[in-house]
Design a protein that fits this description.
This protein has 169 residues and is of the alpha+beta class. Helices cover 31% and strands 20% of the residues.
């Protein structure tokens, strides 16, 4: 009897879950993985810019101290988003992302529950410009949702960025 085999999406989301464990945010643990031609080409997690002190080293979250709600005022966060770090890490290695897929796993560290790990608007714009084709996000119910980047582009042409139905925060 053959043991059950996980799908590729579940496999890559499982790796993104492990990447998320490196996050240095008090609020969220998020990991991103970029795949092209069935090969991992980049990873990223929520963390401060290289060679700077993160929230764990400071011992507090600046946005919590300032009472900033989730999904607002990202410019006041010490961290770079996991999706951004995955794109940046590929650039540092000189690896093209064109035609690749991104997998994002997220967990709320306060509740310990999985979240809908949809990218924020800033990350969505970076993902579009990086030339990725698809994004697979973990969901709060333990499943996942898949998005074609071409659909985001079409939706934003017809409506506007604020009309996007699957938003982080």
């Amino acid at each position: 009897m053959t043991p059950p085999r996980v799908s590729k999406d579940e496999y890559y989301l499982g790796i993104a879950r492990e990447v998320a464990r490196r996050s240095t945010c008090f609020r969220r643990s998020i990991g991103a993985l970029i795949i092209r031609d069935d090969q991992i080409i980049s990873t990223g997690y929520v963390g401060a810019p290289r060679k700077t002190r993160d929230s764990l080293e400071h011992g507090f979250c600046l946005r919590d101290t300032l009472n900033i709600p989730h999904g607002e005022r990202y410019e006041l966060c010490r961290s770079v988003h996991a999706e951004q770090n995955a794109v940046i890490n590929a650039a540092r290695a000189g690896v093209s992302l064109l035609g690749g897929d991104m997998y994002i796993f997220g967990r709320d560290l306060v509740s310990g529950r999985d979240i809908n790990a949809f990218p924020c608007f800033i990350c969505k714009k970076m993902i579009i410009n990086a030339g990725l084709e698809r994004v697979v996000c973990s969901t709060a119910d333990g499943g996942h949702m898949s998005f074609l980047i071409a659909d985001w582009i079409r939706d934003w042409k017809e409506g506007d960025i604020l009309d996007d139905r699957h938003q982080y925060g």
